[in-house]
Every structure is written in structure tokens, then in C-alpha cells.
Design goal:
By secondary structure, the protein is an alpha/beta fold. It has helices spanning 6-14, 22-33, 83-106, 124-135, 146-157, and strands at 39-40, 51-53, 58-63, 110-115, 141-144. The protein has a single domain (17-157), classed as Endonuclease, Chain A (3-Layer(aba) Sandwich), CATH 3.40.960.10. It has 5 helices and 5 strands; from the N terminus they run ααβββαβαβα. It has a 5-stranded mixed sheet with strand order 1-2-3-4-5, sandwiched between helices. The longest helix has 24 residues, at 83-106. The N and C termini lie far apart (43 Å). The model has no long low-confidence stretch (mean pLDDT 88).
């Protein structure tokens, strides 16, 4: 059961931004402060990626864990109210994302997905290391979530 009225929920959902979100700004600052130069939201590229690094022929999507259904992430729940609507909407987002990623790779781009849960300051160094490694590799696709960063730190402390 939703704790908000229908009007409150509508107003809340309308306020959610699709551009210049905190995770995107975090990634942009991380890249720029480490010498990476990029373009934003290139409309000529399929899917209008959040960040385009032309030098590396790489596009970066900073995905919200809820909206893009990050697997095994506590932020990727399906609301109980209007469950069928949300399941359909979020599943369609997943299908669209997969097709866009496949098409971008087929046309020669490298695709990097950075999940919202990975955009935290205490993991910035590890995140930058993973991004940099990907940019200089021959890999065509990578997803980075919080668990990809935390697991490494836990191994180091054992």
C-alpha cells in the first residue's frame, strides 16, 4: 500500500530527473578531475548516452538501479502498489537497454554501464581504476555496481 496520495506520488515521480543526476555528476567530476574529456548526451548516438568519450570510442550510461533493474541490488525493487504496471514498465526498460547496448557494440562502440549504487565517494578510487582499465582494454562491455567495488575491498582486508 502506498503511503502517499495519488497526487503526492504523481508530483514526486514528476520531480525525478533523467539528466544531470547526482550519480552522473559524480562520474563526470571523477572523469574530468583525472584528465578524461567527454561530451554529454550526444543525440547522434543511439540511446543518447550520458557520457561519450570519443577518444576511447566509449559510451557511458549511468543507470539508476530502480529504473533499469540492477540485478541483486536492494534499490531495484518493484513497488507493491500497481505492481503489474511497474513490472511491465521496468521490464520494457530492460529490454530497450539491452537492444541499445547490442546495437552500440555492433556499430563499434564500447559500452560502460555504471550503476547508481557504485557512485559513492568512498569507492571513488576503485571505481576510477575499473573505468580506466576498461577504457584501455579491448573489452566491449562492462557493468560496474557497488558489489563490484566492495568485493575487492573485502578481499584486500582478509
Amino acid at each position: 500500500m502506498d503511503r502517499m496520495t495519488k497526487n503526492q506520488r504523481s508530483k514526486n515521480m514528476a520531480a525525478i530527473k533523467s539528466r544531470n543526476t547526482r550519480p552522473e555528476i559524480f562520474i563526470r567530476q571523477l572523469l574530468f578531475s583525472n584528465g578524461y574529456r567527454y561530451r554529454l548526451y550526444d543525440k547522434k548516438i543511439l540511446g543518447k548516452p550520458d557520457i561519450v568519450l570519443k577518444k576511447y570510442n566509449t559510451v557511458i550510461f549511468v543507470h539508476g538501479c530502480f529504473w533499469h533493474r540492477h540485478r541483486n541490488c536492494p534499490k531495484a525493487t518493484i513497488p507493491e502498489g500497481n505492481h503489474e504496471f511497474w513490472l511491465t514498465k521496468l521490464t520494457n526498460n530492460e529490454i530497450r537497454d539491452k537492444k541499445i547496448n547490442e546495437d552500440l557494440i555492433r556499430t563499434g562502440y564500447k559500452v560502460l554501464i555504471i550503476w547508481q549504487c557504485a557512485c559513492v565517494h568512498r569507492h571513488a578510487d576503485e571505481l576510477l581504476n575499473k573505468i580506466s582499465t576498461f577504457l584501455h582494454s579491448t573489452d566491449r562491455y562492462l557493468e560496474i555496481g557497488r558489489s563490484d567495488l566492495v568485493v575487492k575491498q573485502e578481499k584486500d582486508t582478509k
